[in-house]
Amino acid sequence: MRKILKLSRALDQSISPIDHQYEFITFDAALHSKAWLDLNNEIFKVHPDQGNWALADLNNRMQEPWFDCNGFFLCLRDGAIVGFCWTKIHHDFVNVDPVGELYVIGVAPDSANQGIGKAVCTEGLIYLRNKGIKSAILYVDEDNEAGIGLYKSLGFN
After folding, report:
1. What is the pTM of this model?
2. What is the number of domains present in the chain?
3. How far apart are alpha carbons 136 and 15 in whole angstroms?
4. Sheet of strand 99-107: strand arrangement
5. Does residue 62 lie within any of the structural domains?
6. Which among 29, 30, 73, 140 is least buried, having the fewest CB atoms inside 10 angstroms?
């Protein structure tokens, strides 16, 4: 049975960008949808929620009130997307400050272990903090040891 962990961290202290040699841009549906879908589906090919997306799935998410392309970061190497961090801000909790989420994080399999995951997550956290968000959450499968290790290194518990 699948078990999903919810990790969180405060955003009350400054967050420094990670040194890297990559280019970071924000998602533009007209330019990046196909390439992002191809990479997302490669990364999450066996994932029950995030894998096997069609353009309609992406378009549905982009129609959600929380969608903001300025919080959807792409990491490029030689013009190709090699990683991404898609953030989400929850404004719907009653009597609670808005909460930021690292909604979807991915790194191309052939680019793993090169610091891309940490760099894109850090960009997402900086974005959320700069929006005045005080805390961040993310969801991760309990058996995703690499992901959990990354998130703990970023201050998530």
Report:
1. 0.94
2. 1
3. 13
4. 4-10, 135-141, 99-107, 80-90, 72-77, 23-26
5. yes
6. 30
**CATH number of the domain that 130 lies in?**
3.40.630.30
Domain that holds residue 27: 4-143
In a domain, 16, yes or no: yes
Rg (CA), the chain: 15
Task: Please provide residue 42's backbone torsions phi and psi, each rounded to the nearest 5 degrees.
Answer: -70, -45
Please tell me the distance from the alpha carbon of residue 148 to that of residue 96, in angstroms, as a whole number. 26
* C-alpha distances in Å from residue 144, one per residue of 3, 11, 20, 95: 10, 24, 24, 33
Cβ-based neighbour number of residue 105 at 10 Å:
22
Question: What are the tens digits of pLDDT across the range 86-134?
Answer: 999 999 878 889 999 999 999 999 999 999 999 999 999 999 999 999 9
* Measured distance CA(117)–CA(101) in Å, rounded: 15
